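Schema walk-through. Below, the input block comes first and the output block second. Nothing else is stored per chain. Lengths vary across the set, and this one has 157 residues.
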Amino acid sequence: MGEPVPVAEGGLIGSALRAVGEGASANAWLRALSEGGTGVRRAVGLRIFGQAKALAAEYQAEPTRAVNQVPSRAEMRSWPTRASSGVLQTVQIFYRERVTGRIVQRYYSVKTDTGVTRGEAIQRAIDANSDNAEQYEQDFIGAVHTGAASLVAGAVA
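--- output ---
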């Protein structure tokens, strides 16, 4: 688990999300990982798979959409604000604590004028959290784009 996980694939979280979407069980996913040469302890793998199931239930298709695309207006919800405008994108990042094996998730928001690709938003979140993860002895296990909102200035009474 010490090697970097490709962002474009979402890391282990992305792999688990794809398995959830295909209707695979946690055991089938763990078996496929093992056959593919990725070693994950069963308890850690089950926690990761559980996180993926929760993400799929809460965010539907968003975590598995193409990371090389900017979310379209149809994929964004409108968010009324007093003065802010632009696009707010949210990312969830997952780490495994080296000492306890516990899965830790962090939330990160990227605000831009017109939006960035999902992959760029994910990379910004990872970059912003990498020092913190190292300081607290945490291994990166994946990150997913969880949504985007179009900020509408002056829409709040």
